[in-house]
Amino acid sequence: MKATARKYRQAPRKELTPLTLDNFASLDTLQKLAGFGEVVEASSTGILLHFKRDDFIEKDLRSTLNIDFLVGQNVYFTIHEMGLEISGTVARTKFMGKKGFQVAVDYSKDAPEYWRECLMDLLPE
After folding, report:
1. pTM of this structure
2. pLDDT digit string (tens) for 37-53?
3. How does DSSP classify residue 68?
4. Partners of 76 in beta bridges
5. Burial, 21: exposed, middle or buried (Cβ in 10 Å; 0-12, 13-18, 19+)?
6. Residue 39: which of 14, 57, 63, 62 has the closest Cα?
């Protein structure tokens, strides 16, 4: 990661014990994008998700190397272990080769700061 990216980061990240997602869907179209995924990092402004190719529902998503079309889309997902639904906007995506994809979701506009700080305290490290 570049030093400039760290310099401007809004909130410190917390590496987590991977939590599973029950679904990952578009709020704009209500289309279910993935049936499974993992939360790998979180901060009080965003959450980093990991998806394997097989996690995506549509064949087109499983066969592509670029999911940048998701950037800017409003999405929601449910963290299985917590029974918690979170919505936000896809801030960026990254292809990780055979490991799959990373998707960063900014949820700071959809939740008050106090709630986001409490969530950080509840997430397992």
Report:
1. 0.85
2. 999 999 889 999 999 99
3. G
4. 25, 87
5. buried
6. 14
